[in-house]
Amino acid sequence: MPRLGELAQLLPSAQLIGESVALEDLTLDSREVRPGSLFCATRGTRFDGHSFIDDAVASGAAAVMVAHPVSVQIPQLVVPSVRHAIGRVASYFFGDPSRSLEVIGITGTNGKTTTSYLVESVLNRSDRNVGLIGTIESRFAGLNRPSIYTTPEAPDLHRLLADMLRDGTQSVVMEVSSHGIDQHRIDSMRFEIAVFTNLSPEHLDYHGTMEQYYYTKARLFVPGLSNAAVIGTDTEWGRRLASQVSIDHVTYGPDPENDFVVSDIELVPEGTRFQLRHGRHTTRLTVPILGAHNAYNAAAAVAVGHLLGLDATEIYAGIENCHSVAGRFESIVLGQEFRVVVDYAHTPDAIRSLIETVRLQSPGGRVILVAGARGRRDRLKRPELGRAAAMSDLAILTADNPGDEEPAEIVAQLLAGTLDVATPPMVVELDRRRAITLAINEAGRGDTVLIVGRGHEQSLRVGSEVVYLDDREVARSAVAARIGI
Ligand SMILES: CC(=O)N[C@H]1[C@@H](OP(=O)(O)OP(=O)(O)OC[C@H]2O[C@@H](n3ccc(=O)[nH]c3=O)[C@H](O)[C@@H]2O)O[C@H](CO)[C@@H](O)[C@@H]1O[C@H](C)C(=O)N[C@@H](C)C(=O)N[C@H](CCC(=O)O)C(=O)O
Ligand SMILES: Nc1ncnc2c1ncn2[C@@H]1O[C@H](COP(=O)(O)OP(=O)(O)OP(=O)(O)O)[C@@H](O)[C@H]1O
């Protein structure tokens, strides 16, 4: 195991106070310290990790990494910014595992999880052992762990990559969130390929402006961090990125000048069918996940396979045999005469694109939407979410993980966005179970009930309480009650 002095040598401005002790592990959280750990004190939105140093010492920390000298009996590594140091330190500590793995990083506002599953499915067609890290789970060597964050904190990320490597994993597909980039969780990683899906307003309370949000995402696409890129150009931000990056890249999108051109998207019973042109080669592919946007997600996965030199037949087989992604356009089918779809859409863009998909698929039927907005996150997007919800025929506005915010206030902010647009009937039902049941009881033949926001999630945080609630389960019971089975 590394010694503290080795870590000091990695960081030019670090000052080691005390002995170069051997370290067993490292963590940002005093509650996770075990004997021999290096506790790294970072500032969050509520606390300054430096105030938990006594707790860390009591739990047996061997040393601390701090932003200023502290009065403590154990050795300390003083650095100008613990946040800036943590990626480098964590990567070194676990043996720089990403350098021995073929890592594909996927970023963008929407489509990271879906694209990562598609890339995984493509890579599984080659003889690689593939691992996955993302919002829903991390998976390798037959193990499956539910995720807490989309992109783990640097110590957890590099520990996981090291475990994967030890278990024979060769390629890793991982989602890279903008928080992950901004909080230096991915510093010192090596990505073989970085993918940019798209960018639309989200997390602006965190990043401030779209420009800053874009800049954060763009930091993944620099030499040294990523070797090559696959860039979706269906948003202006992707076109801008493609014109700015200096690493090798290919593009995909609707315009004919892309390297991979997506056209003729159709929704068919088996999923989403589209045409993909690459150079002189044109093919029709069906990705078994509904939603026009999945044609683009699939094109991204094809481009990754192409850059990795995989055979086209294998790539296409990976796309066509990808299993569905939990909570992404997941249909509840119990023989009812209307459709019920649970989806993870929680950005205005995703909700709009979903409603368009449903309208294409069920022309003439009504779209009955159940939607809310998450608490403690991204207040700025709420009016725009309200406007997106207004594209439905009946919107039932409800709670979506309100945390310590008042659900009624969140819904009022959604409604505020609809003041200047023509709205369908809008009903407020803050109890999410009742909102879903109400929507299902309202649906008639040919209608679609679209329940958005939670997708695969199985709990809601209301105040400080965690309440078990799985939209799919609630919808299933409501449909069963409605049709009497
Ligand atoms: C909103 C946000 O940015 N949160 C970050 C923030 O957490 P925080 O404000 O809750 O931290 P805090 O409670 O003030 O604590 C500060 C520090 O003290 C430590 N602490 C705290 C209590 C204690 O007893 N002992 C202790 O050591 C904490 O571990 C932390 O390091 O500061 C922490 C330390 O720097 C970050 O880990 C944390 O990101 C957490 C992981 C988080 O949930 N972030 C979310 C928003 C996130 O990153 N999400 C993206 C996906 C977003 C998306 O695409 O939708 C993700 O990649 O998961
Ligand atoms: N390429 C895309 N363009 C627009 N919307 C999309 C796209 N791909 C997926 N979506 C929508 O976004 C929702 C979330 O998809 P997915 O989980 O793949 O994205 P994500 O980027 O991983 O989200 P998160 O950052 O919250 O984990 C889907 O349920 C779908 O409604």
- The value of Rg in angstroms is 24 Å
CATH architecture of the largest domain: 3-Layer(aba) Sandwich
Strand order of the largest sheet: 9-8-7-10-6-11-12-13-14-15-16
Bound small-molecule species: ligand UAG, adenosine-5'-triphosphate
User: What share of the residues lie within helices?
Assistant: 25-40%
Number of helices: 16
Main location: cytoplasm
Modified residues (N6-carboxylysine): 217
Enzyme class: ligase
Domain Mur ligase central: 106-304
What does this protein structure show overall?
The protein has helices at 4-10, 53-58, 82-93, 112-124, 154-166, 178-182, 204-207, 210-218, 236-244, 293-307, 312-320, 348-361, 382-389, 407-416, 432-442, 471-483; strands at 15-17, 25-27, 37-40, 63-66, 76-78, 102-107, 130-133, 137-140, 143-146, 171-175, 191-196, 226-232, 248-253, 260-268, 271-278, 281-287, 330-331, 339-343, 367-371, 394-397, 426-428, 448-452, 459-462, 465-468. The model has no long low-confidence stretch (mean pLDDT 94). The chain is globular. The longest helix has 15 residues, at 293-307. The chain is built from 16 helices and 24 strands. The chain has three domains: 4-83, MurE/MurF, N-terminal domain (Udp-n-acetylmuramoylalanyl-d-glutamate--2,6- Diaminopimelate Ligase, Chain: A, domain 1), CATH 3.40.1390.10; 97-320, 3-Layer(aba) Sandwich (UDP-N-acetylmuramoyl-L-alanine:D-glutamate ligase); 330-483, Alpha-Beta Complex (Protein-Tyrosine Phosphatase, Chain A), CATH 3.90.190. It has 485 residues and is an alpha/beta fold. Helices cover 33% and strands 24% of the residues. The chain has an eleven-stranded mixed sheet with strand order 9-8-7-10-6-11-12-13-14-15-16, sandwiched between helices. Strands 17-18-22-19-20-21 form a six-stranded mixed sheet, with helices on both faces. This is UDP-N-acetylmuramyl-tripeptide synthetase. The modification N6-carboxylysine is found at residue 217. Keywords: ATP-binding, Cell cycle, Cell division, Cell shape, Cell wall biogenesis/degradation, Cytoplasm, Ligase, Magnesium, Nucleotide-binding, Peptidoglycan synthesis. InterPro entries: Mur-like_cat_sf (IPR036565), Mur_ligase_C (IPR004101), Mur_ligase_C_dom_sf (IPR036615), Mur_ligase_cen (IPR013221), Mur_ligase_N (IPR000713), MurE/MurF_N (IPR035911), UDP-N-AcMur-Glu-dNH2Pim_ligase (IPR005761). ATP binds at residues 108-114.
